[in-house]
Amino acid sequence: MVYRATVEKFGGSILRNGEGFSKIINAIKTSHAQGDVIVVLSAVSGVTDRLISMAKKAEKGSHVEKEIDSLFQDHSQLINNFILDSEERKNATKTCKDFIEILYPLLDAVSRLKELTPRTLDYIAPFGEKLAIQILTHALKSAGVAAKAIDGEEVIKTNDNFGNAFPIFYECQRAFKEKILPMIKEGIIPVIAGFCGSTMKGITTTLGRGGSDFTATTIGAVWPADEIILWKDVTGLMSANPKIISNAEILEKVTYAEAAELAHFGAEVLHPRCLIPAKKKDIPITIKSFSSSTKGTIINNKPNEKEGIVKAIVALEDVAQITVAGEAMAGVPGVASEIFKLMAENLVNIVMISMGSSEVNVTFVVNLEDGERAVRVLKRSSNFGRVWTNVEMEDDVGVCAVVGEGMKFTPGVAGKVFSALGRAGVNIRTIAQGSSELNISFVISRKDIPKAIKAIHDATYLRTPHKKTK
Length: 470
Ligand code: ASP
Ligand code: MG
Hints:
A hairpin with a 5-residue loop joins β12 (350-355) and β13. An eight-stranded mixed beta sheet has the order 3-4-2-1-7-9-10-8, sandwiched between helices. It contains 15 helices and 16 strands. It has a domain at 6-233: Carbamate kinase (3-Layer(aba) Sandwich). It is globular and about 75 Å long. It is α/β, with parallel strands linked by helices. The structure holds aspartic acid and magnesium ion.
Protein backbone atom coordinates (compact mmCIF):
# COMPACT_ATOMS: atom_id res chain seq x y z
CA MET A 1 0.00 0.00 0.00
CA VAL A 2 1.21 3.49 -0.83
CA TYR A 3 1.60 5.79 2.15
CA ARG A 4 -0.51 8.94 1.99
CA ALA A 5 -0.37 12.11 4.04
CA THR A 6 -3.83 13.70 4.11
CA VAL A 7 -5.26 16.88 5.57
CA GLU A 8 -9.01 16.60 6.08
CA LYS A 9 -11.06 19.66 6.86
CA PHE A 10 -14.64 19.31 8.00
CA GLY A 11 -17.13 22.14 8.02
CA GLY A 12 -20.75 23.02 7.51
CA SER A 13 -23.88 21.33 8.75
CA ILE A 14 -22.15 17.96 9.12
CA LEU A 15 -20.86 19.29 12.45
CA ARG A 16 -24.37 19.92 13.67
CA ASN A 17 -25.24 16.52 15.12
CA GLY A 18 -23.86 13.28 16.45
CA GLU A 19 -24.65 11.45 13.24
CA GLY A 20 -22.45 13.91 11.33
CA PHE A 21 -19.63 13.57 13.83
CA SER A 22 -19.77 9.77 13.43
CA LYS A 23 -19.34 10.16 9.66
CA ILE A 24 -16.34 12.38 10.31
CA ILE A 25 -14.79 9.75 12.57
CA ASN A 26 -15.26 7.09 9.87
CA ALA A 27 -13.64 9.31 7.23
CA ILE A 28 -10.69 9.96 9.53
CA LYS A 29 -10.29 6.23 10.23
CA THR A 30 -10.31 5.48 6.49
CA SER A 31 -7.56 8.00 5.78
CA HIS A 32 -5.61 6.91 8.83
CA ALA A 33 -5.57 3.34 7.56
CA GLN A 34 -3.69 4.60 4.48
CA GLY A 35 -1.14 6.81 6.17
CA ASP A 36 -1.14 9.90 8.37
CA VAL A 37 -3.97 12.38 8.82
CA ILE A 38 -4.25 15.88 10.18
CA VAL A 39 -7.76 17.09 10.89
CA VAL A 40 -8.85 20.73 10.64
CA LEU A 41 -12.26 21.74 11.92
CA SER A 42 -14.51 24.68 11.42
CA ALA A 43 -17.13 25.67 13.98
CA VAL A 44 -20.48 23.91 14.33
CA SER A 45 -22.61 25.60 11.67
CA GLY A 46 -24.05 28.94 12.71
CA VAL A 47 -21.80 29.27 15.77
CA THR A 48 -19.37 31.81 14.29
CA ASP A 49 -22.30 34.02 13.27
CA ARG A 50 -23.69 33.72 16.79
CA LEU A 51 -20.37 34.67 18.39
CA ILE A 52 -19.93 37.67 16.12
CA SER A 53 -23.48 38.82 16.75
CA MET A 54 -22.99 38.48 20.55
CA ALA A 55 -19.84 40.59 20.32
CA LYS A 56 -21.66 43.26 18.28
CA LYS A 57 -24.58 43.31 20.71
CA ALA A 58 -22.19 43.64 23.63
CA GLU A 59 -20.47 46.52 21.87
CA LYS A 60 -23.80 48.35 21.97
CA GLY A 61 -23.91 47.80 25.72
CA SER A 62 -26.23 44.77 25.84
CA HIS A 63 -25.70 41.79 28.09
CA VAL A 64 -25.36 38.50 26.31
CA GLU A 65 -25.13 35.92 29.11
CA LYS A 66 -28.23 34.13 27.84
CA GLU A 67 -26.71 33.72 24.40
CA ILE A 68 -23.52 32.35 25.94
CA ASP A 69 -25.57 29.92 28.06
CA SER A 70 -27.38 28.65 25.00
CA LEU A 71 -24.09 28.20 23.15
CA PHE A 72 -22.95 25.95 25.98
CA GLN A 73 -26.27 24.07 26.01
CA ASP A 74 -26.00 23.30 22.31
CA HIS A 75 -22.45 22.00 22.58
CA SER A 76 -23.12 19.93 25.66
CA GLN A 77 -26.17 18.40 23.98
CA LEU A 78 -23.95 17.42 21.08
CA ILE A 79 -21.50 15.80 23.49
CA ASN A 80 -24.22 13.90 25.34
CA ASN A 81 -25.77 12.71 22.12
CA PHE A 82 -22.83 10.86 20.80
CA ILE A 83 -19.74 10.51 22.95
CA LEU A 84 -20.11 6.97 24.19
CA ASP A 85 -17.41 6.69 26.80
CA SER A 86 -18.67 8.36 29.99
CA GLU A 87 -15.19 9.48 31.07
CA GLU A 88 -14.56 11.17 27.70
CA ARG A 89 -18.06 12.64 27.81
CA LYS A 90 -17.30 14.20 31.18
CA ASN A 91 -13.92 15.50 29.98
CA ALA A 92 -15.40 17.01 26.84
CA THR A 93 -18.14 18.77 28.80
CA LYS A 94 -15.58 20.09 31.25
CA THR A 95 -13.24 21.50 28.58
CA CYS A 96 -16.14 23.13 26.73
CA LYS A 97 -17.35 24.63 30.00
CA ASP A 98 -13.86 26.02 30.67
CA PHE A 99 -13.81 27.68 27.26
CA ILE A 100 -17.31 29.09 27.68
CA GLU A 101 -16.34 30.53 31.08
CA ILE A 102 -13.81 32.76 29.33
CA LEU A 103 -16.59 34.31 27.24
CA TYR A 104 -18.64 35.70 30.16
CA PRO A 105 -16.10 38.23 31.50
CA LEU A 106 -14.78 38.93 28.02
CA LEU A 107 -18.17 39.90 26.58
CA ASP A 108 -19.07 41.67 29.80
CA ALA A 109 -15.96 43.83 29.35
CA VAL A 110 -16.96 44.59 25.75
CA SER A 111 -20.42 45.70 26.88
CA ARG A 112 -19.03 47.84 29.72
CA LEU A 113 -16.49 49.52 27.48
CA LYS A 114 -18.86 49.60 24.49
CA GLU A 115 -15.79 48.95 22.45
CA LEU A 116 -15.04 46.08 20.09
CA THR A 117 -11.73 46.37 18.28
CA PRO A 118 -10.89 44.05 15.37
CA ARG A 119 -8.32 42.46 17.67
CA THR A 120 -10.92 41.69 20.35
CA LEU A 121 -13.36 40.33 17.78
CA ASP A 122 -10.64 38.02 16.47
CA TYR A 123 -10.23 36.63 19.96
CA ILE A 124 -13.96 35.98 20.32
CA ALA A 125 -14.94 34.75 16.83
CA PRO A 126 -12.97 31.45 16.72
CA PHE A 127 -14.41 30.03 19.96
CA GLY A 128 -16.67 27.83 17.84
CA GLU A 129 -13.64 26.10 16.32
CA LYS A 130 -12.08 25.70 19.76
CA LEU A 131 -15.18 23.99 21.11
CA ALA A 132 -15.57 21.79 18.03
CA ILE A 133 -12.02 20.40 18.25
CA GLN A 134 -12.55 19.47 21.90
CA ILE A 135 -15.69 17.55 21.06
CA LEU A 136 -14.14 15.67 18.14
CA THR A 137 -10.93 14.86 20.01
CA HIS A 138 -12.79 13.34 22.95
CA ALA A 139 -15.08 11.47 20.55
CA LEU A 140 -12.07 10.06 18.70
CA LYS A 141 -10.54 8.96 21.97
CA SER A 142 -13.83 7.40 22.96
CA ALA A 143 -13.70 5.47 19.67
CA GLY A 144 -10.20 4.25 20.52
CA VAL A 145 -8.30 6.64 18.21
CA ALA A 146 -5.39 8.64 19.66
CA ALA A 147 -5.98 12.35 18.98
CA LYS A 148 -5.00 15.73 20.38
CA ALA A 149 -6.76 19.11 20.09
CA ILE A 150 -4.54 21.95 18.91
CA ASP A 151 -5.49 25.62 18.83
CA GLY A 152 -4.87 27.37 15.52
CA GLU A 153 -2.70 29.91 17.34
CA GLU A 154 -0.06 27.27 17.92
CA VAL A 155 0.67 26.53 14.28
CA ILE A 156 -0.75 29.23 12.05
CA LYS A 157 1.59 32.19 12.50
CA THR A 158 0.25 35.27 10.75
CA ASN A 159 0.72 38.98 10.14
CA ASP A 160 -1.36 41.32 12.32
CA ASN A 161 -4.07 42.11 9.80
CA PHE A 162 -6.88 41.35 12.26
CA GLY A 163 -10.01 39.96 10.65
CA ASN A 164 -8.17 38.92 7.52
CA ALA A 165 -4.70 37.83 8.57
CA PHE A 166 -2.28 36.09 6.23
CA PRO A 167 -0.09 33.15 7.29
CA ILE A 168 3.69 33.62 7.37
CA PHE A 169 4.76 30.45 5.58
CA TYR A 170 8.19 29.81 7.11
CA GLU A 171 6.99 30.55 10.63
CA CYS A 172 4.09 28.11 10.17
CA GLN A 173 6.58 25.55 8.91
CA ARG A 174 8.78 26.05 11.96
CA ALA A 175 5.84 25.74 14.38
CA PHE A 176 4.57 22.71 12.49
CA LYS A 177 7.92 20.91 12.79
CA GLU A 178 8.14 21.69 16.44
CA LYS A 179 4.56 20.96 17.55
CA ILE A 180 2.76 18.79 15.04
CA LEU A 181 5.33 16.49 13.44
CA PRO A 182 6.41 14.78 16.68
CA MET A 183 2.78 14.04 17.43
CA ILE A 184 2.25 12.45 14.02
CA LYS A 185 5.35 10.34 14.49
CA GLU A 186 3.84 9.00 17.69
CA GLY A 187 0.68 8.04 15.81
CA ILE A 188 -1.51 10.72 17.38
CA ILE A 189 -3.96 12.53 15.10
CA PRO A 190 -3.74 16.32 15.47
CA VAL A 191 -7.17 17.99 15.46
CA ILE A 192 -6.54 21.64 14.66
CA ALA A 193 -8.95 24.54 15.17
CA GLY A 194 -9.36 26.23 11.78
CA PHE A 195 -9.96 29.93 11.11
CA CYS A 196 -7.57 31.28 13.79
CA GLY A 197 -3.88 31.91 14.06
CA SER A 198 -1.63 34.20 16.03
CA THR A 199 0.90 36.92 15.38
CA MET A 200 4.57 36.49 16.24
CA LYS A 201 3.70 38.10 19.57
CA GLY A 202 1.07 35.43 20.20
CA ILE A 203 -2.01 37.64 19.67
CA THR A 204 -4.99 35.78 18.20
CA THR A 205 -5.94 36.59 14.60
CA THR A 206 -8.47 35.16 12.17
CA LEU A 207 -7.98 34.36 8.49
CA GLY A 208 -11.29 35.85 7.32
CA ARG A 209 -14.74 34.24 7.13
CA GLY A 210 -14.58 30.69 5.88
CA GLY A 211 -10.93 30.73 6.93
CA SER A 212 -10.66 27.13 8.05
CA ASP A 213 -10.18 26.19 4.38
CA PHE A 214 -7.14 28.44 4.48
CA THR A 215 -5.91 26.74 7.69
CA ALA A 216 -6.23 23.35 5.97
CA THR A 217 -4.32 24.36 2.84
CA THR A 218 -1.60 26.11 4.85
CA ILE A 219 -1.11 23.00 6.99
CA GLY A 220 -1.16 20.88 3.82
CA ALA A 221 1.56 23.01 2.25
CA VAL A 222 3.90 23.12 5.24
CA TRP A 223 3.66 19.40 5.96
CA PRO A 224 3.60 18.77 2.83
CA ALA A 225 0.55 16.54 2.36
CA ASP A 226 -0.28 14.39 -0.66
CA GLU A 227 -3.85 15.62 -0.63
CA ILE A 228 -6.07 18.18 1.06
CA ILE A 229 -9.71 17.17 1.39
CA LEU A 230 -12.29 19.84 2.13
CA TRP A 231 -15.55 18.24 3.27
CA LYS A 232 -18.43 20.63 2.70
CA ASP A 233 -22.18 20.83 2.39
CA VAL A 234 -21.84 21.10 -1.37
CA THR A 235 -20.40 18.34 -3.51
CA GLY A 236 -18.04 20.56 -5.45
CA LEU A 237 -17.60 23.60 -7.65
CA MET A 238 -20.35 23.93 -10.24
CA SER A 239 -20.66 25.13 -13.81
CA ALA A 240 -23.30 27.64 -12.67
CA ASN A 241 -25.54 28.39 -9.72
CA PRO A 242 -27.96 25.40 -9.63
CA LYS A 243 -30.71 27.71 -8.40
CA ILE A 244 -30.57 29.43 -11.79
CA ILE A 245 -29.46 26.57 -14.04
CA SER A 246 -31.20 23.33 -13.19
CA ASN A 247 -28.78 21.23 -15.28
CA ALA A 248 -25.64 22.86 -13.85
CA GLU A 249 -22.88 20.27 -13.45
CA ILE A 250 -20.31 19.54 -10.80
CA LEU A 251 -16.89 20.39 -12.27
CA GLU A 252 -14.72 17.31 -11.96
CA LYS A 253 -11.37 19.02 -12.37
CA VAL A 254 -10.41 22.67 -12.22
CA THR A 255 -7.06 24.42 -11.97
CA TYR A 256 -6.03 26.51 -8.97
CA ALA A 257 -6.43 29.62 -11.13
CA GLU A 258 -9.96 28.69 -12.21
CA ALA A 259 -10.94 27.79 -8.66
CA ALA A 260 -9.61 31.15 -7.44
CA GLU A 261 -11.71 33.00 -10.03
CA LEU A 262 -14.79 31.06 -8.95
CA ALA A 263 -14.08 31.63 -5.27
CA HIS A 264 -13.72 35.37 -5.80
CA PHE A 265 -17.00 35.35 -7.59
CA GLY A 266 -18.92 34.47 -4.54
CA ALA A 267 -19.29 30.76 -5.21
CA GLU A 268 -19.14 30.73 -1.38
CA VAL A 269 -17.71 27.27 -1.55
CA LEU A 270 -14.07 28.18 -1.03
CA HIS A 271 -12.10 30.80 0.83
CA PRO A 272 -10.53 32.69 -2.12
CA ARG A 273 -7.04 32.82 -0.65
CA CYS A 274 -6.95 29.18 0.43
CA LEU A 275 -5.66 28.22 -3.00
CA ILE A 276 -2.40 30.11 -2.58
CA PRO A 277 -0.47 27.66 -0.35
CA ALA A 278 -1.78 24.58 -2.17
CA LYS A 279 -0.75 26.02 -5.51
CA LYS A 280 2.69 26.96 -4.20
CA LYS A 281 3.39 23.35 -3.24
CA ASP A 282 1.22 21.81 -5.96
CA ILE A 283 -0.95 19.82 -3.59
CA PRO A 284 -4.30 18.70 -4.98
CA ILE A 285 -7.42 19.83 -3.15
CA THR A 286 -10.57 17.71 -3.25
CA ILE A 287 -13.95 19.17 -2.43
CA LYS A 288 -16.44 16.54 -1.29
CA SER A 289 -19.65 16.13 0.60
CA PHE A 290 -21.05 13.34 2.75
CA SER A 291 -24.45 13.82 1.21
CA SER A 292 -23.41 12.66 -2.24
CA SER A 293 -21.51 9.68 -3.52
CA THR A 294 -20.16 11.59 -6.56
CA LYS A 295 -16.47 12.29 -6.67
CA GLY A 296 -16.66 16.03 -6.14
CA THR A 297 -14.16 18.51 -7.55
CA ILE A 298 -10.39 18.06 -7.75
CA ILE A 299 -8.33 21.23 -7.91
CA ASN A 300 -4.79 20.94 -9.22
CA ASN A 301 -2.37 22.42 -11.75
CA LYS A 302 -3.48 20.46 -14.79
CA PRO A 303 -6.00 22.05 -17.16
CA ASN A 304 -8.66 19.52 -18.07
CA GLU A 305 -8.54 19.28 -21.86
CA LYS A 306 -11.77 17.32 -21.98
CA GLU A 307 -13.92 20.10 -20.63
CA GLY A 308 -15.28 23.07 -22.54
CA ILE A 309 -13.62 26.41 -23.27
CA VAL A 310 -15.84 27.91 -20.61
CA LYS A 311 -15.93 25.97 -17.37
CA ALA A 312 -18.33 28.07 -15.40
CA ILE A 313 -20.38 31.19 -15.47
CA VAL A 314 -20.82 33.00 -12.19
CA ALA A 315 -22.26 36.28 -10.96
CA LEU A 316 -22.04 38.82 -8.18
CA GLU A 317 -25.38 40.46 -7.54
CA ASP A 318 -24.80 42.98 -4.81
CA VAL A 319 -22.50 45.41 -6.55
CA ALA A 320 -22.55 48.98 -7.82
CA GLN A 321 -20.77 50.45 -10.79
CA ILE A 322 -19.08 53.83 -10.44
CA THR A 323 -17.93 55.93 -13.37
CA VAL A 324 -15.59 58.89 -13.09
CA ALA A 325 -15.80 60.78 -16.39
CA GLY A 326 -14.45 63.98 -17.88
CA GLU A 327 -12.35 65.08 -20.82
CA ALA A 328 -9.98 66.78 -18.43
CA MET A 329 -8.77 63.33 -17.41
CA ALA A 330 -7.30 62.37 -20.78
CA GLY A 331 -3.51 62.24 -20.93
CA VAL A 332 -3.08 63.28 -17.29
CA PRO A 333 -0.80 60.88 -15.44
CA GLY A 334 -1.91 59.85 -11.99
CA VAL A 335 -5.69 60.05 -12.40
CA ALA A 336 -6.30 56.33 -12.01
CA SER A 337 -3.84 56.11 -9.16
CA GLU A 338 -5.59 58.96 -7.36
CA ILE A 339 -9.01 57.30 -7.72
CA PHE A 340 -7.81 53.95 -6.42
CA LYS A 341 -5.71 55.49 -3.67
CA LEU A 342 -8.86 57.18 -2.36
CA MET A 343 -10.71 53.87 -2.51
CA ALA A 344 -7.91 52.07 -0.69
CA GLU A 345 -7.70 54.71 2.03
CA ASN A 346 -11.42 54.35 2.61
CA LEU A 347 -11.36 50.53 2.60
CA VAL A 348 -13.45 50.20 -0.55
CA ASN A 349 -12.67 46.90 -2.23
CA ILE A 350 -12.63 47.02 -6.04
CA VAL A 351 -14.25 44.08 -7.81
CA MET A 352 -13.57 45.03 -11.45
CA ILE A 353 -11.98 47.92 -13.40
CA SER A 354 -12.44 49.13 -16.95
CA MET A 355 -10.93 52.13 -18.72
CA GLY A 356 -11.14 52.78 -22.44
CA SER A 357 -8.10 54.06 -24.28
CA SER A 358 -9.67 57.48 -24.87
CA GLU A 359 -9.01 57.89 -21.15
CA VAL A 360 -12.07 60.04 -20.57
CA ASN A 361 -13.68 57.69 -18.14
CA VAL A 362 -12.73 55.15 -15.54
CA THR A 363 -15.41 52.68 -14.53
CA PHE A 364 -15.11 50.33 -11.63
CA VAL A 365 -17.31 48.00 -9.64
CA VAL A 366 -17.53 47.86 -5.85
CA ASN A 367 -19.65 45.97 -3.35
CA LEU A 368 -23.09 47.54 -3.07
CA GLU A 369 -22.61 48.42 0.59
CA ASP A 370 -19.47 50.44 -0.27
CA GLY A 371 -21.03 52.28 -3.21
CA GLU A 372 -22.32 55.42 -1.54
CA ARG A 373 -19.19 55.84 0.53
CA ALA A 374 -17.03 55.53 -2.58
CA VAL A 375 -19.04 58.20 -4.40
CA ARG A 376 -18.98 60.55 -1.40
CA VAL A 377 -15.22 60.22 -1.04
CA LEU A 378 -14.65 60.94 -4.74
CA LYS A 379 -17.01 63.92 -4.82
CA ARG A 380 -15.42 65.45 -1.76
CA SER A 381 -11.86 65.01 -3.00
CA SER A 382 -10.12 68.00 -4.54
CA ASN A 383 -9.64 66.26 -7.89
CA PHE A 384 -12.93 64.66 -8.80
CA GLY A 385 -16.61 65.36 -8.91
CA ARG A 386 -16.29 69.14 -8.80
CA VAL A 387 -15.89 71.09 -11.99
CA TRP A 388 -14.18 68.99 -14.59
CA THR A 389 -15.20 65.48 -13.79
CA ASN A 390 -18.45 63.76 -13.11
CA VAL A 391 -18.97 60.88 -10.67
CA GLU A 392 -21.93 58.59 -11.20
CA MET A 393 -23.13 55.41 -9.60
CA GLU A 394 -25.43 52.72 -10.97
CA ASP A 395 -26.70 50.50 -8.21
CA ASP A 396 -29.03 48.27 -10.23
CA VAL A 397 -26.25 46.17 -11.74
CA GLY A 398 -24.49 42.84 -11.34
CA VAL A 399 -21.21 41.42 -12.64
CA CYS A 400 -21.01 38.12 -14.48
CA ALA A 401 -17.77 36.28 -15.11
CA VAL A 402 -17.13 33.59 -17.66
CA VAL A 403 -14.28 31.43 -16.39
CA GLY A 404 -12.09 28.80 -18.03
CA GLU A 405 -8.44 28.16 -18.86
CA GLY A 406 -9.61 26.90 -22.26
CA MET A 407 -10.24 30.51 -23.30
CA LYS A 408 -6.50 31.08 -23.53
CA PHE A 409 -5.35 31.11 -27.12
CA THR A 410 -8.82 30.22 -28.40
CA PRO A 411 -9.86 32.95 -30.81
CA GLY A 412 -13.46 34.03 -30.97
CA VAL A 413 -14.51 33.28 -27.40
CA ALA A 414 -15.37 36.87 -26.52
CA GLY A 415 -17.33 37.15 -29.77
CA LYS A 416 -19.35 34.04 -28.97
CA VAL A 417 -19.97 35.13 -25.38
CA PHE A 418 -21.27 38.50 -26.44
CA SER A 419 -23.32 37.21 -29.33
CA ALA A 420 -24.98 34.69 -27.00
CA LEU A 421 -25.85 37.61 -24.74
CA GLY A 422 -27.02 39.69 -27.69
CA ARG A 423 -29.37 36.93 -28.83
CA ALA A 424 -30.79 36.75 -25.32
CA GLY A 425 -31.41 40.51 -25.39
CA VAL A 426 -28.96 41.30 -22.57
CA ASN A 427 -27.37 44.72 -22.77
CA ILE A 428 -23.74 44.91 -21.66
CA ARG A 429 -22.71 48.02 -19.80
CA THR A 430 -19.00 47.43 -19.12
CA ILE A 431 -16.45 44.75 -20.02
CA ALA A 432 -13.10 43.64 -18.58
CA GLN A 433 -10.78 40.78 -19.41
CA GLY A 434 -7.62 40.10 -17.47
CA SER A 435 -4.50 39.31 -19.51
CA SER A 436 -4.47 35.84 -17.97
CA GLU A 437 -7.41 35.27 -20.35
CA LEU A 438 -9.20 32.92 -18.03
CA ASN A 439 -11.93 35.34 -17.04
CA ILE A 440 -14.13 37.65 -19.08
CA SER A 441 -16.21 39.86 -16.79
CA PHE A 442 -19.06 42.16 -17.72
CA VAL A 443 -21.55 44.39 -15.99
CA ILE A 444 -25.26 44.05 -16.82
CA SER A 445 -28.59 44.97 -15.23
CA ARG A 446 -29.07 42.93 -12.08
CA LYS A 447 -32.41 41.65 -13.35
CA ASP A 448 -30.72 40.24 -16.47
CA ILE A 449 -28.31 37.98 -14.55
CA PRO A 450 -30.33 34.73 -14.81
CA LYS A 451 -30.95 35.34 -18.50
CA ALA A 452 -27.24 35.99 -19.14
CA ILE A 453 -26.10 32.93 -17.22
CA LYS A 454 -28.57 30.74 -19.04
CA ALA A 455 -27.58 32.10 -22.46
CA ILE A 456 -23.92 31.28 -21.91
CA HIS A 457 -24.49 27.99 -20.13
CA ASP A 458 -26.65 26.83 -23.05
CA ALA A 459 -24.13 27.92 -25.72
CA THR A 460 -22.82 24.56 -26.91
CA TYR A 461 -19.83 26.09 -28.67
CA LEU A 462 -18.55 27.56 -25.43
CA ARG A 463 -19.12 24.50 -23.33
CA THR A 464 -17.31 21.95 -25.54
CA PRO A 465 -13.52 21.50 -25.97
CA HIS A 466 -11.73 23.13 -28.91
CA LYS A 467 -8.32 23.06 -30.54
CA LYS A 468 -6.03 25.80 -29.39
CA THR A 469 -3.98 27.94 -31.74
CA LYS A 470 -0.80 27.79 -29.69
N1 ASP B 1 -16.21 29.32 11.31
C1 ASP B 1 -15.61 30.32 10.46
C2 ASP B 1 -16.65 31.03 9.66
O1 ASP B 1 -17.83 30.71 9.76
C3 ASP B 1 -14.54 29.74 9.61
C4 ASP B 1 -15.01 28.67 8.66
O2 ASP B 1 -16.15 28.28 8.65
O3 ASP B 1 -14.20 28.22 7.87
O4 ASP B 1 -16.34 31.92 8.93
MG1 MG C 1 -17.93 27.92 7.67
